Design the sequence.
């Protein structure tokens, strides 16, 4: 138990030291800031997929809900960062509640397709209301509005620390859930939902809570992504942004706290190198998906836990 | 044009949509019904059909009808074999576990799509219509080829229905769909059946692509939209129910076509999904479906 908490805190400490000791080059510093926010999105995804065992193919909907709610409120309504962040969280929580309520009427394969369709509709709606959302082209959040407590969030150093803060927050929430009775029930549902039902747990309600937590964390990550990097576009709502968190979680290890981070680092750099070589760099995603499903079902951290360190959360 | 003729025009366009959509959705539904797996790469097999049709027709000079007929012969086989191969290499090893298969087919989706980008290129490319006759329908002219598309789709759907209900092969498929374990106990080689069905589903989508590509253009991203519509169709029609699939395809295809003509294609898709929401609330198993998933 204690070893476990030390492991996760030291992972955060390493990420902090990398920056404060100036080990990062400017390029990797920027990359890692992105990776940390995306990994927070992965953490959100993992709560639903890794712990509850519900495979969603439409999480881009929640990510872009946060992204657009906060981005549009800054762009059109001149909200400040706190207000827009709050709005982003509320909207994504509300949308996860609605989607969860509808999608949980189905189970298994239908659930996956239904989530995929909902997110596709969000994507099409963003394109359709192009006069407000600026469609495919997207919009830029001006540097002057990206100021929080008189700190300029576009400054690379502050941006990195903010990203680390957000990731730490999401990761610790995840760790806490994994250790809590609530998290145990989620895992019980994943392993055998009929038995959980027999034991008297309200499986549907637990699943709904799981979707809300997962969707809200994803939305928080989306809102922060827009604020920290200053760009909001329809590509973040496209199918590929639903597939990415799935891939990160699978590579890192579903149902592990550090899995999404490891997976996100791995995929980010793999795609980064591949896109120097070819335009068709998404082929890497395809190959990685096949590789994970065929040969490495547990993922990196999952494999470590299975073979050596049973205590990892 | 007045409203009446305009509505007729929109309905005809809608019928063309519905014809192609029912082929695509039927392929998806067949694979789901028999194998109990969702093939997310289905749209990419459709796209593959379209770009190979372009490739075949660009090889054949002279009358475009020759290229078209050649495509009808060759393309379904190539696409079907690609699907058979991916089943044999990948899905078979996953033991058709629903979650793993859906992730693997997403992988296949990206590989086919990006492979098309590398070889075919990022631009949309047109294919000439095999015959260019305009029928004068009093208020407006309408391409005879579009009637041909509707007609061929009906013929093909009837043929599939006959095969499914009257032949031994169809009986084997239905037996596998009903209870694969018992079917195996009676000596049906399940893994071969799965292999063939996966190829067949992709080949049916490819025929849809051959028919539509002289009207639409071939493009490496064209697989996404029909996949979304096909999903809507199979959910409304009930996953795995062939009759339901065709009925829902006509409903969705027609309304998609009509709304696209009057308003915008995006609105049509948004409305169709809202319809899915309504169906899910009233009847989680689809309007015609009896299967539980």
Sequence:
């Amino acid at each position: 138990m204690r070893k476990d908490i030390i492991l996760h805190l030291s992972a955060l400490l390493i990420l902090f030291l990398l920056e404060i000791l100036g080990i990062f080059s400017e390029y990797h510093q920027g990359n890692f800031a992105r990776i940390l926010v995306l990994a927070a999105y992965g953490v959100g995804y993992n709560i639903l997929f890794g712990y509850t065992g519900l495979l969603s193919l439409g999480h881009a909907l929640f990510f872009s809900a946060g992204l657009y709610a906060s981005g549009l409120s800054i762009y059109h309504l001149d909200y400040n960062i706190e207000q827009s962040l709050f709005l982003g969280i509320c909207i994504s929580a509300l949308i996860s509640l609605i989607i969860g309520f509808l999608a949980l009427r189905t189970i298994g394969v239908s659930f996956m397709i239904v989530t995929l369709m909902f997110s596709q509709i969000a994507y099409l709606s963003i394109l359709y209301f192009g006069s407000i959302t600026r469609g495919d082209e997207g919009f830029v959040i001006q540097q002057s509005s990206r100021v929080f407590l008189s700190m300029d969030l576009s400054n690379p150093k502050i941006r990195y620390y903010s990203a680390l803060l957000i990731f730490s927050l999401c990761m610790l929430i995840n760790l806490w859930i994994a250790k809590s009775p609530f998290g145990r029930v989620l895992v019980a549902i994943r392993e055998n939902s009929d038995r959980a039902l027999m034991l008297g747990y309200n499986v549907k309600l637990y699943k709904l809570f799981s979707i809300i937590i997962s969707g809200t964390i994803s939305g928080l990550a989306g809102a922060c992504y827009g604020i920290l990097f200053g760009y909001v576009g329809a590509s973040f709502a496209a199918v590929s942004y639903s597939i990415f968190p799935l891939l990160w979680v699978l590579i890192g290890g579903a149902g592990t706290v550090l899995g999404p981070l490891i997976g996100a680092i791995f995929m980010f750099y793999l795609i980064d190198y591949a896109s120097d070589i070819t335009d068709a760099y998404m082929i890497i995603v395809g190959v990685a998906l096949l590789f994970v499903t065929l040969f490495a079902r547990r993922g990196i951290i999952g494999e470590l836990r299975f073979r050596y360190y049973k205590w990892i959360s | 044009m007045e409203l009446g003729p305009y509505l007729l025009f929109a309905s005809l366009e809608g019928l063309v949509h519905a014809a192609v959509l029912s082929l695509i959705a039927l392929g998806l539904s067949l694979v789901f019904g028999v194998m109990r797996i969702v093939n997310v790469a289905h749209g990419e097999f459709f796209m593959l059909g379209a770009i190979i049709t372009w490739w075949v027709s660009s090889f054949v000079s002279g009358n475009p009808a020759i290229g078209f007929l050649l495509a009808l012969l060759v393309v379904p086989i190539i696409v079907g074999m690609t699907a058979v191969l991916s089943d044999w290499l990948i899905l078979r090893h996953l033991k058709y576990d629903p979650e793993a298969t859906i992730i693997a087919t997403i992988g296949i989706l990206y590989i086919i799509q990006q492979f098309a980008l590398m070889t075919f290129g990022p631009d949309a490319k047109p294919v000439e219509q095999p015959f260019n006759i305009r029928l004068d329908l009093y208020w407006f002219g309408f391409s005879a080829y579009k009637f041909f598309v509707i007609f061929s789709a009906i013929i093909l759907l009837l043929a599939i229905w006959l095969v499914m209900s009257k032949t031994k092969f169809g009986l084997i498929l239905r037996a596998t769909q009903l209870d694969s374990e018992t079917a195996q106990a009676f000596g049906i080689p399940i893994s071969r059946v799965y292999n063939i069905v996966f190829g067949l589903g992709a080949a049916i989508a490819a025929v849809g692509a051959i028919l539509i590509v002289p009207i639409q253009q071939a493009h490496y991203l064209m697989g996404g939209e029909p996949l979304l519509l096909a999903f809507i169709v199979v959910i409304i029609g009930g996953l795995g129910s062939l009759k339901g699939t065709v009925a829902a395809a006509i409903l969705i295809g027609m309304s998609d076509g009509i709304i696209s003509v009057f308003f915008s294609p995006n609105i049509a898709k948004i409305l169709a999904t809202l319809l899915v929401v309504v169906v899910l609330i009233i009847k989680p198993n689809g309007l015609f479906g009896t299967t539980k998933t």
User: Anything to note?
Assistant: Residues 304 and 310 of chain A are 8 Å apart (CA to CA).
